[in-house]
Amino acid sequence: MSQLCKIIPERCIACGLCAVYAPNIFDYDEEGIVLFAQEPEAHQQFIQDEQAAVLKAYQKCPVRAIVLEK
Ligand code: SF4
């Protein structure tokens, strides 16, 4: 089952944690603000693989800039 993951760059404080936990999913722009590694223009993505890693990133984000929906 896939999971819808959204990112809210306006909330991101560029801490870098999400790409530590899910480096294949999350990346950053030149200011360190979160974006999707495979789809830099998108603000949401269906996650099929690495759901555990994405869940960890979601839990660790200090400002809830990552949102997971079932
Ligand atoms: S963990 Fe949250 S605040 Fe930190 S870089 Fe990722 S989205 Fe931004």
UniProtKB/TrEMBL annotation:
Keyword Lyase included in the entry's annotation: no
Keywords, alphabetical: 4Fe-4S, Electron transport, Iron, Iron-sulfur, Metal-binding, Transport
Keyword match Kinase: no
Named cofactor requirement(s): [4Fe-4S] cluster
Residue ranges occupied by any 4Fe-4S ferredoxin-type domain in the UniProt entry: 3-31
Domain of life according to the entry: Bacteria
GO molecular function: 4 iron, 4 sulfur cluster binding; electron transfer activity; iron ion binding
Gene3D superfamilies for the chain: 3.30.70.20
InterPro entries membership: 3Fe4S_ferredoxin, 4Fe4S_Fe-S-bd, ET_Ferredoxin
Function recorded in the entry: Ferredoxins are iron-sulfur proteins that transfer electrons in a wide variety of metabolic reactions.
Protein name as annotated: Ferredoxin
